[in-house]
Amino acid sequence: MPDGQVVNDAEHIGDLESYENALAGLNRRDFLAYCTGVAATLGLEPGFGVSIANAAVAAPRPTVIWLSGQACTGCTETLLRTNHPTLETLILDTISLDYNETLMTGSGHQAENWKQQAMKANWGKYLMVTDGSVPTGAGGNYCRVAGKTYIEAVKDCAAGAAAVISIGSCSSWGGWVSTGVNPTGAKGLNEIITDKPVVTIPGCPPNPYNFLSLVLHFVTFGKLPALDDKMRPKFAYGRLIHENCERRPHFDAGRFAMEFGDYGHRQGYCLYKLGCKGPETYHNCPSIGFNDVGQGTWPVGTGHPCFGCSEKGVGFTKSIHELATLKSVAPPNTYPAVATEKGQGMTPGAAAVVAGIAGAAIGAGAVIAGRLGKQDANAERDAPTDSDAK
Amino acid sequence: MTGAPPNADPFDAGFGAATRLACRDCGAVYDPALGDPARGAPVGTSFARLPERWACPGCGAAPHRFGPASASAPEAEPTDTLIAAYHRVAADAMSGVAIGNPALSVEAVGFRAMTCGRVAGRIGCVVAPWFLNAVMLPDDAARWTAARDGDALALSLPSGAYRFNAARMGALGTLAVMPLVSDMAVFATQAEARDAATLALDALLQTNAAPPVETAPAKPKSALSRRALFGRGAA
Question: Which residues form the NADH:ubiquinone oxidoreductase-like 20kDa subunit domain (chain A) (predicted)?
Fold first, then answer.
């Protein structure tokens, strides 16, 4: 199609009647619109919304066991504020949230028994999600649940998990508890669980929509989406905030806010000189915003510089008003095909350009892959998200 | 202007701290030295920094109706004006900003006439020490007047649809801009940056063989007469 959108064939559409009342009472139209939205967030072509819809109504709900370490509960709180779908929809219809210390009704031995049962019954199949960092100081004794240190708890749980997801910066790379003097020896989960991949959704708080999209991808395709070198899903962390930012035109034109409340700040100018870490932070906050209340609901949208909460070495590490440096997109994240077609090595500049193009493409993963890398075409069919396009 | 000999400085679309502009419709002059406090622009505000909804005090025209105040200035090509504007930004606002690559300079690469969906204009890349962007200059300068800075504009290029951002550029009006490279340190020389920009344009503007993408023909636009509108066979 001229607009670059590729639409899946209608044959994928399942039994329309089964969509009625899906996800706890959405009508068919809303349900399909929701699934298409998830497809867009994942960088898939719109037609994959139908696949997601089919999986969401057909697949047995995967068991999720959610453990909390040194956390402020912000990650759970942010999940409570999702609207697409709402939390009750998520935990009643999409996944089976069998253990979450904040949300479950049971307590004490009852809760612990339930966790053990859920693990045993779904051994090798459940999703393990953790928020909060893992304290390693003092033999791990800074955090004990049910008589076990948190280190033991995550190791036990990870042993039988089909996939391990770290939600939030603390669980992803240690977060704020790991910065500075770090008295508890806080570490990210991926430093404790080393024998299987730990997908990370960093952010403080992370965007629940990215988490939900990740889970639905897992439910739909039975595997995880394309990840970057820090094990973050590329659909959410593939592009710098600087490149998604609605204030980017001001940066290009040299229009900066110089202090809070000045003329430039009131005009919505670029916050780089106030210490915005957008140029060194990978996230899709500007594109999807928070809490479903519309455009501009993220820190920079409200006039505060991004402080790089999701990026190790930036958030909670650099001071808030310290000037940012720029990060390049690492060449492995980009399409190798362009340079080979041109018969020359892939220069970092060319890699950056190609990554930039892929990042700006609209919901056209297949289109971009078809354009820039023919050999991706087959891989595209098997794994719709193994493309870098957003 | 600040004593510059006429035509020595190309028109910078109002990015200069002292560039005076005149409304082409009513002749009203905007002088940064006076500002426009009544419309929210303090004294010393350059034309390119006027508030988002600022309009000509004389006739209410949008900023793209403004041009050089000195009558002797020739009408400049929009691309040249754009480059002059970025040169001015490089010399003023971006000087001393650590984020750019000082080995690079502002340059337009590969601008060509193009019709993207319903938007006719000129598309190309701009290289600057602090960005490499694809830029679409619409032929109709009023095309995106209603858009605010950063609004998403989806443009269909031969290789697919892309998200551009609306960017107000002073007297040039509102353009569509797509950031391609942010970390300009990946380029060692201007030539490398230029090559990357050419590569980017090639990738963006190449048509895929299958399915055939309809490239909107750049047919001469005849004035839409009533006859042409209602008559099926009319040329």
Answer: 72-217
